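Translate structure to sequence.
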């Protein structure tokens, strides 16, 4: 496997792991009041604002791959950028069109909100870490509609 690809995949894996733990922390102590407001509203901010929320915390660790090599640095930075785009898309999609989350069996973040879960299903992009750390909760759900990803709110004007 090329170095850049390995670094890209590692960045995605690290991104989803940090996402899981950060979201879990928001249910315990980190920005708990603000996060509770998000649960009360039950909506996303629009893809662009979600992207910024994921991109800025990712930015400081993007150069880490360059400590290994130029190729790994480019791959890791690209993986971090892709992660921020994908996480923003996943979050917005699960608030608006959870039926379009084709890459996971159940849209765990959508169910996390719908079922008022405060101790389960912290994954947003994927459910891997909920399964690894024992916080996955299976809830009956079936896809209700289909459509295009273009139907999302990409920029929400505040």
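Result:
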């Amino acid at each position: 496997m090329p170095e850049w690809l390995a670094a890209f995949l590692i960045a995605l894996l690290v991104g989803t792991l940090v996402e899981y733990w950060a979201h879990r922390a928001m249910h315990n102590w980190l920005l708990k009041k603000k996060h509770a407001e998000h649960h009360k509203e039950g909506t996303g901010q629009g893809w662009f604002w979600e992207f910024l929320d994921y991109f800025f915390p990712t930015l400081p660790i993007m150069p880490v791959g360059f400590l290994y090599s130029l190729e790994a640095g480019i791959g890791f930075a690209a993986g971090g950028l892709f992660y921020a785009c994908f996480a923003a898309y996943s979050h917005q999609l699960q608030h608006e069109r959870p039926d379009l989350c084709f890459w996971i069996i159940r849209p765990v973040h959508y169910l996390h909100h719908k079922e008022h879960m405060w101790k389960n299903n912290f994954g947003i992009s994927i459910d891997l870490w909920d399964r690894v750390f024992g916080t996955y909760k299976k809830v009956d759900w079936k896809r209700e509609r289909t459509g295009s990803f273009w139907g999302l709110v990409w920029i929400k004007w505040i």
